Amino acid sequence: MSKTSLKSTDAPSLKPLKWICGITIPLSLIGLGLWGWMLKNRDNLPAIGTEASQRLLGQYLATAHDIFLILLAITAVLLVRLISKFQRNEATETGRLQKPPLQALFDFAKEQPIALSLFAAYTVAMVQGTTWLYPELVGWYSDVVSDHLLNNFSFHSEFISETMRRRDFRFFPLAHQDLHVLSWFTAYVKVWMLVSAAELIAIVVLSTRFVRRLSSIDDKQGAGILIITALLLMIHPSTAEGFFQLIYCERLLTLVFILYASSYLHYQKTNSNASFYSTFLFGLIGIFIKDIAAILFIIPPIASIAFGFLGWDKNHDQWSLKSTKKFLKDYRLELWLLTLISIFIFSYSYLSLLPSSYISQGSYSDKSESSIEFDWRFTFLILLTTSRLIMAGLGRLRLHLLDALNIASISYAGALFILVSFKSYSYLSLPVHLVTTLNVVWIWSSALAPQINRKLPWRITAAIGTTAAVIVLILESNQGQPSFIKTVQWIKSRQSSWLGAYIRVNEIAREIRQKGEPVNIIYNSNSWFSRKRHLGKINYDRLIGFDPDDNSLRIEDGIDRGAQYTPLPGDLILNIDKSIYSLKPIFSNSSHEQLYRHNKTDDSGAIYRLQP
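-> structure tokens emitted (612 positions)
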């Protein structure tokens, strides 16, 4: 396969790999040695549960993550400078001028009015009715709006605790940091959702470019690819669950993954040094967004090298002992990307393994029961990948980057199944859904569309492809698994329910106080809400937490704080985000009046008042 090579006198060298591996591997071994020593000499450290142990652990996590962020920032700056330098050089070599952003947007609107309309409608659907009432966001947002919005450019403890103070063997220090940075500039959640919509649109556009570049199809002949990609990628329950909510790091992971794949493919096609370093940068960032994200960024180079050894690689000749020097040159990027393995192990051992082992809290997935539910798309991915590997082994075809991404995504699905569960309609499967969509659109653009174009105008071909995509979506909506529409409806309904209960309890508390009566609010203490998380803003006399595990009630805030409590007539029973049934022990001892209920489901927002 021919490449459009760019001339460069500064081709990336393999020498930095000696430094990377020479530092990270010994330090990783030292970290693992410290881990083994700690397990055998735990008595020499402060006892778990004591104030000294909490102070030691807090100081260690803070210092270790500070060093990690500084090193990562320095590395990222150096890589960005290299990327910028080579981009300027390559633009000069090719004579390619980049359009101003407004001009590019105007041209896109002229060329793709249907896609632009779809993006606009989808964005409106995402923003409409959006609030800060998502499970984890309830806690994060309370930190954002604290201090009267005067400490904008400060690190929010809730974001830091969620990602960089973990003690359960989880490891995703860069997860949710896009929201963290965004919160410095605005507290308006609808603006956050606009950014989430922009991330999704960017994923669609980058996916389209990836397929076009892989298929070597021009813009005119591939006019329908953007619409087809948008429909198949955006109208799916995993996308709805991931992007219509702001609490899942899969949004950022999927964006970084497609940036990584696009840069990787561009380098393979052009030998661009800017794309070389971009691929490494995106891989470096990606491995820190989610525990198992390293699979997505490390498996592709491993698979590509394996293809080369076996003679299956479409871009390079099979390796032989005589061609070792050429092999190392051809797979220079893959060798760089393999250093992500030692970087990940080094980082994980110090930032997660050591502190989690010390506290002995157990892993996040200890109580999870693995299960698997997949749709036709995942079945298609498995069959396609298997058949192409078999055909490559028989010498019938050569493999390319998308095949390596397929292996990575299937491995990622396997890791999900082992740790928690794999469900094709879940937000957890977003990266797998992305790769599956790339395969479907690639087959259309490289095999089916060219055949149809020989007999019909390209506009008709685009219409046929779009119609086929719509039919697929209609058939998917009738399957037993949650559909895109039902997922969106559930998300919107839950937000409305939570918001309605929160607003109504404020109003009721004000009305009761105006009558001169005491305001005592009882709620499920396992709720995402608490005194520190928004309930403290209600004008009550007592906030009482009910523990459904032992049916005890304790005053968390207000008069007689810390004391046990016995329900009295006139007390308010508040349910925002838990099962109403969990509050049944309180209802069983006295009559009550329903003051508010959003809907008839068991987890509906509801307010009751105990009667004499």
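The chain has a mean pLDDT of 89.
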